[in-house]
Amino acid sequence: MRDLERPAEAAGTTSTAAPAVEQDRPARAGGPDTRSTLARLLDTGAGRNLGLVAVLAVLCVIGIATADTFATTSNLLTILTSASIIGVLTVGMTFVIIGGGIDLSVGKVMALASVWATTLATQSYGPAVMVFCALAVGVGCGLINGVLIAYGRVVPFIATLAMLISAQGLAERISGKRSQIVTDPTIAAIASTRVLGIPLLVYFFAAVVAVGWVVLNRTTFGRRTFAIGGNLEASRLAGIDVRRHTVLLYVVSGLCCGIAAIMIASLTTTGSSTHGTLYELDAIAAVIIGGTLLTGGRGTLVGSILGVLVFTTITNLFILNNLATEVQNIAKGLIIVAAVLFQSRAQRANP
Amino acid sequence: MASPERGAPPLLQMHGIVKQFPGVRALDGVDLDVAAGEVHCLLGQNGAGKSTLIKVLAGAHRPDAGEIRWDGRPVTFGSPHAADVTGIATIYQELDLVPGLSVAENVFLGHERARLGFTRPRELDDETRALLRRLGHPEIPPGRELGRLSAAGQQVVSMARALSRDARLIVMDEPSAVLDPEEVDNLFRVVRELTAEGVAVVYISHRLEEIRRIGDRVTVLKDGRTVARGLPAPSTPTAEVIRLMTGRTIEYVFPPRPAVPTGDPVLEVDGLGRRGEFADVSFSVRPGEVVGLAGLVGSGRSEILETVYGARKATSGSVWVQGRALRAGSVRAAVRAGMGLAPEERKSQGLLLAEPVYRNVSLPSLSRFARAGFVRGGAELAAAAAVIAQLDVRPADPTRPVRTLSGGNQQKVVLARWLLEECRVLLLDEPTRGVDVGARSEIYGLIRRLSGQGVAVVLVSSEMPEVLGLADRVLVVREGRVVYQAPAEELDEERVLDLVMEGSRV
Questions:
Q1: Which parts of chain B have pLDDT scores under 50?
Q2: What's the CA gap between B185 and B190, in Å, rounded?
Q3: Contacts of residue B370 in chain A, CB cutoff 8 Å?
Q4: In this structure, are residues B469 and B57 in contact, taking their beta carbons and an 8 Å threshold?
Q5: What angle do CA B369, B374, B375 make, to 5 degrees?
Q6: Burial class (CB within 10 angstroms; exposed 0-12, middle 13-18, buried 19+) of B250
């Protein structure tokens, strides 16, 4: 289809240009060229990110216009802080989705890790053990997901859905459906600490993004993630251990859940089975509007993070303007659709 | 024009049909005419253009040039639906049925005869039962889930589907491939009934004896052209048909063949088998030797190659590289031992289409360009650039996405990958499929050059001249067994084709 359409288009431009050759020449040289440059730009990761940056800029303009308090330092830090937890989950989700999978369990694995890390027994061993428990629960759940998917050949959607449900159940069982107060002063202090005026949680977020970016773009692990998501069979036939790699992808996602669990336990000073409800959908949405293909093989971490920031900024705008959360969700839905439509257009323009 | 012209024109006339795909001219002026009530056989080697022609007939491909007349009137089939409305039904080799639906639902898929959107299952079941009875298979229950039927059963359902459309022309692509002899008789009875009612049948098969039994006339395709039309099927001698199929218009240029190397075999395959696919395959390849596997599609050649590579797990036998046995079913073990595969389906099995050339080239050897897991991009790019320059990949830009390259250059990228990996055993499955003529000879030269450097090559190809021209030794595979083995000089195309198709003279 594409091949058929293209020559027709080209023929169209030449025929319209024909009557006034002299005048049209600069336009003709310039017209198709800028268009293809734009299309090419949109096709690159950086280009798609530019689109998101533009959306973010528009949101900021709206924010400044509608709310006096939007452009204050404290409000901007609030946006970043609330982005940080979902942002960490999104980093893991980006790995999984680029690798051709999906992880629906992130929100509740995070909840389970937060509960496990904040039981009276765990807290009695001190902050180091609490952190270790959170990370171990995350990694353990990721490992189970990964093994089920890679070796048990369970469809990722099903395996992680099952994990979502059972992690929720286990978290409720351990906590007795009560919020467990974080009594440990070190953990509680993480969220309230500021370095150079910026909350420590934002540094956590930045560090996870930085490490994630390096791993995804500079290591053999990252490269193989793209390869497996892009063409599983070709990767297998090239001698890559695709099953082990798949397991590791879900472990990465689990690890991110563990980190996020510590952050949310500190921010809310509780460990609770109600944490992270529907976070997986926010994380997936952020990855998608960030330009990562849901089928895998293509995507950027920066795009995902911009996606998170867009969502968080919208939430912030609605709160500042005292608008109902229902309207906010409608807006989010529209943005997801708009972003995906826009991307598929851009892709079709430059196959 | 509305009324049929005098002398009743043939039901279907195709003239000068051309279909171009990127890099290949699949059809290059095909003529075919089919009269009502006849069984018209379409013959040709793999790649001669039969499948493409069928797809043009079925409305799945739009021809680039040429004319189709139906009842003497020019027509164009813009979509499968248009062909269907005209009265053409196609029974594909890969059955186009939905495994999760019932037999009756499959038969009437797309023509459910619903009333106000409600399906009428009882009526469909009754009609399906009648159709199946007519096909001699009253035992198939219309309500059975299609996926639970055997391949032959599904074939029958596919036939019922064509019948349900009251088609005037039915195209059957290798309908007998999955049937046992008794069922073939049944199929022929139905075909005769249909033709007696004036339905035309286009019949494709590799079994020449079937064509003599059922066919009225034969059209032979070769390299996308019609080389003989309307030969009488029962009386044309087999030798004549094979000669028509093999005589070449395209000149293949093969590099000179050096002396057969001596030295210890680098690859040894011993009694290799996979249940239901092939059995008892043994051969060995010396460094610098090219061994060819000749056989029809479905004969098991690709399966053998993939099992040697560990992409399929052998159920018996073993594979040895340089005297060490490989773990069965492990591609990693094969790659570590120095094996490389250029798979049959380049796009779906070989390449990361969206990724740049250099990332495709470095895929198996990536860890060599990494320190502590960090890829040294410069070294990787330089190495990949060197290899693609060596293989003359055009354009010689390693950062271009692979999908923008032509078929021949994509294949070179796959070969470059294994050149970079410095493999000792190279398995090539259809290395020139979808590659234009010019690039073909380049790839032949490349394969020879690699073998000259001491790489052992195993080659699978549907194109007989390719196997005979490149390989030092040829194994003929039929129905999952190696039926003949000889040095390439002792064989010619007609002999191999004869072994592959009928084996009457083994």
A1: 1-6, 503-506
A2: 9
A3: 219-220
A4: no
A5: 40
A6: exposed
How many domains is chain B partitioned into structurally?
Answer: 2
Using CA atoms of A262, A265, A267, A268 in order, give the dihedral in degrees to the nearest 10: 170
SS3 of residue B46 by DSSP: coil
Residues of A in contact with B355 (CB under 8 A): 226-227, 230, 297
Residue B228 contacts residue B218 (beta carbons within 8 Å): yes
B-chain CB neighbours of A233 within 8 Å are 348-349
Residue B403 lies in a domain: no
Structural domains in chain A plus CATH codes: 45-349 (1.10.3470)
The DSSP result for B110-156, as a single string, is: T----BTTB--HHHHHHHHHHHHHHTT-TTS-TTSBGGGS-HHHHHH
Asked if residue B209 and residue B280 are part of one domain, the reply reads no
Q: Tell me the pLDDT tens digit for each residue of B252-295.
A: 677 777 777 788 899 999 999 998 889 999 999 999 999 999 88
* Pair (B242, B323) in one structural domain: no
Q: Are residues B334 and B467 in the same domain?
A: yes
With contacts defined as CB-CB under 8 Å, which chain A residues touch B364? 238-240
> Cβ atoms within 10 A of the Cβ of B58, count?
21
Distance from CA of A284 to the nearest CA of B (A): 22
The 10s digit of each residue's pLDDT in A191-230 is 888 889 899 999 999 999 999 999 999 999 999 999 999 9
Q: What is the CATH number of the domain that holds B156?
A: 3.40.50.300
Q: Which residue among B311, B353, B367 places its CB closest to the CB of A237?
A: B311
**Residue B12: helix, strand or coil by DSSP?**
strand
**Is the Cβ pair A231, B353 closer than 8 Å?**
yes
| B290: Cα separation from own chain's centroid | 22
- Mutation target among B321, B327, B330, B331 for the A interface, most CBs of A within 10 A: B331
Which A residues, 281 through 300, put their C-beta within 8 Å of a C-beta on chain B?
297-298
Check whether residue B23 and residue B71 sit in a common domain.
yes
Range of the domain at B475: 267-351+424-501
- Any CB–CB contact under 8 A between B379 and chain A? no
> A342 touching B, CB under 8 A?
no
Residue B82 lies in a domain: yes
